[in-house]
Amino acid sequence: MFLSVLSTLLVLADAQSPKRNVLVGAHYFSGWHHVTCGKPTKTCYSHFHGYTPTGAPTANWFPNYPDRIPLLGNLTCKEETIINEVATADTALDFFDMLYYDGGANCGSSPTSDPGLGWCLNSALAFMLNSTKVWTNTSRLHFFISYSNDIDARTKGAFVGTAGDIKWKKLIHTWVTSMHHPRYLKINNRPVFKILIPDIFANIECANNATLAKQRLQELRTAAINSGLENPIIGGGWQNPSIPAGQMPPSPIPHPNGYMIYKNTTLLCPEGNCYISNITNISTIECQTLCNNTVNCKAILTDTSMQSESKKCSLMNIKAPGSYSNKQDVHVKYNVPASDLVQYDFTGSYNSAHPICPKSPHDKCPRYKNSWFPNTTSTGAKIFPYQECGDYQGFARTNHSHDRVPYLANIIAGFDPRPWEEHAPSFYRPTRTEWKDVLIQVKTQCLNDTNQFGFPDASEPSGIQPAVNIYAWNEFGEGGIMAPTRGDGYMKVEVLQEVFGNGT
Questions:
Q1: Which member of 157, 198, 249, 263 lies 3.0 to 4.6 Å from 207 by CB, making a disulfide possible if both were Cys?
Q2: pLDDT above 90: residue 51
Q3: What is the pLDDT of residue 308?
Q4: DSSP code of 321?
Q5: Burial 444-476 (b: 16+ CB within 10 A, else e)
Q6: How does strand 323-324 pair with strand 267-268?
C-alpha cells in the first residue's frame, strides 16, 4: 500500500531538501448556531438543522451521533467556544482557513459594527477579529479568509453591473480590513486569500465572464495595496484531485499545466483556448499521456457519459476558436488550466475524499456506488475503511506535484456525511495509527522539493512555503473533524503535535 514506505520516503525527502517548517492549517466552518444565539429561526442556514439517518427532520442530530459532540463548545456564535477552540488549535495548527459566507441569518452576537461580519456563518471570524479575549496566551495560530461562495451558487450575476460593484466593494472592505489584523496569515508579508469555488465565482457570480472575474480579483488586490498591505496571495480552491474516476492507475499522471475544474457550464473560450480535436476509443490514461505529449495542449476533457473504458478525449489548444461547452452531457467537467480563465497564485482542495462521481450513472467506482442510505442497508450507509480515503488522497496529491502554480496540499481528517444523508460514501474515523500515517505521508510530500506543495514564497529558494490544509476543523455533519470530540478526545490534535511539533 501507499503508506507502507513512509519511513523510507521521509528519509529521502529530508535528504533532498534542507529541513524547513511545514505550515499546517484546517478549514473552519462557523455554521453551528440555532435560535438560542439570537435572531435566527429554525429555517436559517445551520448545520444543526440536518436530518437523522431515517430522514426525519430534526433541529439537532447530535444525539444520534454522540461521538461527534465537540468538547470545546457546540456554538460558534458563543465567544467561549471560539476562545476554547483557538487555545487548543494554537498548540497544533499554524492557521485556520476561515470560510467566509455572504449571507444567512444575523446572530446578533458578534462584537463588531461591520455588517459584513454580522451573519451567523461569520460569527467565529467576527470574534477572532474583535474580541479582546480570543488570542490571550496564544502565539502560533493565524487565520486567513476563504470566500465560501457555495451558498451563492444560485446568485447569477451577483458581481455584474452597478449592483455588483457595490456588493463586491462591501466584501472587499470587510476582507481587506481583516487582513490588517495581527494574526492574519501572511506569507513573505503577503496576506493570503482564497476563492473557495472558482467555477461558481467565474460562471455564476460573474456570469460566465472571465474578464470580469479577473477584474474583481484585481480590485481586491488594488484595495489591499492601497491600504498599505503587500499584494495578496489569492488562491482558487475546490480543486478535486485530477485523477480519473474509478480504479487508481498504476502510477500518478501529473501534468505541468495544472487544472482548475469548471463544472456543467458554458464558458466562452478565453483568449482562444479551445479544443484541437475530439478522439474516441481511447482510455483516460492514454488521453492524459497524449495531452502531455502534444504541443500547446492546455487541457483534456473526458466524456464520463460513455459506459466503456473507451471514452471521448478532447485536447485543448490556444489557437482554435470555440468554447468550453457541451450541452449533450450534464456530467462533463471542464478541466481548464488553472491560470487560463482567472489567474490564481495557488490552488487547493476541500473535501474530495474518494474517487467517485456519485451522480453519474456510469461511474467506474463500483465499490462505493450507491453505498449510502437507503440503497445498501435498511438503517444507514455502508462504511468503508479510512485507509482507502488516505491512500486516495496521498496518490491524488501527486497529480499536482508539477502544476504551474503551487498546490496547497490537502488531507482529509474524515468523511462520513450520514447526518445529512448525502449521496456519497462514508468512511470510518481514522485510528491513531492511521491518522499518524497520513500526516507523515503529507509532511513527506511537502518537504520533497520535487513537489510544489504550499504557498508561493519568493523568499524561499524553492519559491514555495511548504503547507498543508486539513479538511476540516469542525465539519461535524460531514465527518471532517479534527476538533476534540467525545469519540476521539484530543487524539487528532495530539498526533498532529507529534508529527509536526512546532512546525519544524
A1: 157
A2: no
A3: 43
A4: -
A5: bbbbbeebbbbbbbeeeebebbbbbbbbbbbbb
A6: antiparallel
